[in-house]
Specification:
The complex is a heterodimer of chains A (315) and B (289). Chain A is mostly helical. Chain A has helices at residues 2-8, 24-55, 72-78, 81-114, 118-129, 136-146, 154-161, 176-200, 205-213, 218-229, 231-246, 250-256, 269-279, 283-309; strands at 57-58, 67-68. The longest helix of chain B is centred in the last third of the chain and has 36 residues, at 253-288. The chains are: A mainly alpha (315), B mainly alpha (289). At the A-B interface, helix 2, helix 4, helix 5, helix 6 and helix 7 of A face helix 1, helix 3, helix 4, helix 5 and helix 10 of B.
């Protein structure tokens, strides 16, 4: 009996050498982790604090140090109408791309998932995902032509066929933000769809079967079983989409330039940071803005996480 | 007339219900929306008539088919240079990041040293820091080191691949620990245990990391925009972006589309061959995150 108990003890994985501060094992662990630790310290922790330091200083161009100006950089950004415009634009594009993106991709994933033909399933997965491997640069260049403001552009040509007036997709400040949303929907639809599909396959069969016995049709089962069951995935996508949306840069920079044309409607927060840091040499203002962006992202993320906290009858 | 081609419906099988056929048609229609931009890009890229401005009406076949547009794209935009630069940068980043992630993932999972949890927590929490916040100090750091316009500005930050560490640790956690204990008792060095015993079992997670890193590095634009100043060093995205940025967007459709189409070849080829794998990696990375 006693022997059995001894054998059941887990083998000591680290050879305990009487209370040494660091064993050979510990040294090995740090040696193996050294690349990661150096990388994290030098390219995440250090720049994070350096940015905080810089945000309270007035720097001239390329140096890390400068005159202490207190919270001036923050108050400058917060009183700059362009900053607020950037916030407004970023949130506008973010909200629409996240909500439409999640809605469309969830419907699409549900459709693909209910296809009973496996080859077809894989084919559609592959096709809808394809734009996702295309870079932001390529997508923007392509859509700058598809969204050509006169009827030569493909989309306006189609509008013309239906007797609609051509739209200045990227030239009219009233619609340009929504054009960006459409463009990013095309690019990102497949990504969310793939993740939803993986989620849909994890919904337990017996839940559906039980509901079917109770007389629920496919649509009601989708509404009352599938959707609540996938809530963590919805929350995950809301969070990832929001974070991504708040960092929008490549497409608006390429299409609208550093002024966020047309009419400043494509000015985003990161574009504002980029412009102040690398065109105006206002590193202090730019880092202060980046901290404001970080705070906004953190607050939004925490607010969205609360959605997952709420318990409902299914849990 | 242009886009009204009706998709050919495959042979109906008896067991197909009406709803399945409707579903199939809806999905085909949607696929069309996904694919048409690519088709337009290809058609335009081969159309000499669209070299200066976009032609009307949109074509299903180039009006004046030509390969000259690609030739011009190669001479004016130096596509070959940019593509090979991108290949070099991608390879370097993949090697550095994957190695850093595998080594640290192994240490955190199998060596279980003093402070391992703190290291893991620290690394994971830095994943929440937006790159946009750290990019300015990082830029200034590389400027101070004199590494602006050098690919070291890509290789060094590649050490910080916390997500890869996380993936690798989760993978090593599934591999049996007694393998290491047996080997250590036999007197094998830690690095030998790692490389001879565990690494050969890691192919799936290495493949996942390579795919995710390749797509990320190949398509990245913001960091190259900051650190690459001379056009001989440009990666493909920044080369393409700078050419249009200087020439004005919306100009020279067939040249730009030829260059864009060419820039997509590597990712699309990789996608076609590893499509299943990529989709799995994305689903995995999405769920893990």
């Amino acid at each position: 009996m006693a022997i059995n108990q001894e054998a059941a003890q887990p083998l000591p994985s680290t050879r305990q050498r009487k209370k040494k501060w660091m064993t050979r094992n510990d040294w090995m662990g740090y040696a193996f982790s050294a690349p990661l630790i150096i990388g994290v310290l030098a390219f995440a922790i250090y720049p994070m604090f350096a940015a905080l330091y810089m945000s309270f200083h007035q720097t001239n161009g390329t140096s890390l140090t400068g005159k202490w100006v207190g919270t001036n950089n923050y108050s400058y950004a917060l009183s700059d109408p362009i900053f607020w415009q950037a916030i407004k634009n970023t949130i506008y594009m973010g909200v629409f791309s996240v909500i439409l993106g999640i809605g469309f991709s969830f419907i699409l994933a549900s459709l693909i998932n209910s296809l009973k033909w496996n080859l077809g399933k894989n084919f559609f997965k592959a096709v809808y995902f394809l734009p996702n491997v295309v870079s932001g640069v390529a997508t923007s260049l392509l859509f700058s032509f598809l969204f050509f403001p006169s009827k030569e552009g493909l989309i306006n040509f189609l509008f013309d066929l239906f007797g609609l007036q051509p739209v200045g997709w990227f030239t009219n400040p009233a619609v340009s933000r929504f054009s960006i949303v459409i463009m990013s929907l095309w690019g990102a639809l497949g990504y969310n769809t793939i993740i939803f599909l993986a989620g849909l396959q994890s919904v337990p069969r017996d839940l559906h079967e039980a509901a079917e016995v109770d007389g629920a049709n496919a649509f009601r089962r989708w509404l009352h079983i599938t959707i609540p069951y996938l809530r963590p995935i919805f929350v995950f996508m809301l969070i990832m989409g929001t974070i991504g949306g708040m960092k929008r840069f490549t497409d608006v920079w390429l299409i609208g330039g550093t002024a966020g044309n047309p009419g400043g409607s494509l000015m985003t927060v990161v574009l504002y940071i980029y412009r102040n840091a690398f065109l105006a040499g206002q590193m202090g203002l730019a880092t202060a803005t980046s901290y404001l962006l970080f705070i906004i992202i953190m607050l939004l993320t925490m607010a969205l996480m609360l959605l997952n906290r709420r318990k409902d009858s299914l849990d | 007339m242009a886009q009204a081609v009706s998709p050919s419906v495959p042979v109906r099988r008896k067991r197909w219900s009406t709803s399945q056929i409707v579903l199939f048609l809806v999905l085909i229609l949607g696929s069309f929306v996904m694919i048409v931009p690519f088709l337009w890009m290809l058609v335009t890229s081969f159309d000499w008539a669209a070299r200066l401005t976009i032609t009307f009406p949109p074509k299903l076949w180039p009006e004046e088919p030509t390969l000259k547009t690609y030739q011009i794209a190669f001479t004016n935009i130096k596509m070959m240079r940019y593509i090979s630069n991108s290949a070099v940068v991608s390879a370097g980043v993949i090697i550095v990041s994957a190695l850093s992630a595998l080594l640290s993932g192994y240490a955190l999972s199998k060596i279980r040293f003093k402070g391992a949890n703190i290291v893991l927590l620290l690394a994971l929490s830095t994943m929440m820091i937006p790159f946009e916040m750290t990019m300015i100090p990082q830029y200034l750091l590389f400027a101070k080191l004199g590494l602006i316009n050098s690919y070291w500005a890509f290789y060094l930050p590649a050490l910080n691949y916390a997500f890869g560490t996380f993936l690798a640790k989760a993978f090593f956690d599934q591999l049996p620990t007694p393998l290491r204990e047996a080997a250590v008792i036999d007197g094998a060095s830690e690095i030998k245990v790692f490389s001879r015993v565990y690494l050969p079992l890691c192919t799936p997670i290495i493949a996942t990391m390579i795919i995710l890193l390749f797509l990320g590095v190949w398509n990245d634009m913001l960091w190259p925009l900051l650190v690459l100043k001379s056009s001989v060093k440009y990666t493909i995205q920044i080369g393409l972006a700078m050419f249009t940025y200087d020439n004005g967007i919306n100009k020279q459709p067939s040249i730009i589309m030829a260059a864009t189409a060419f820039s997509l070849i590597p990712v699309v080829v990789v996608y076609l061959f590893l499509q299943r794998y990529i989709i799995e990696s994305i689903a995995l990375s999405g769920i893990k995150q």
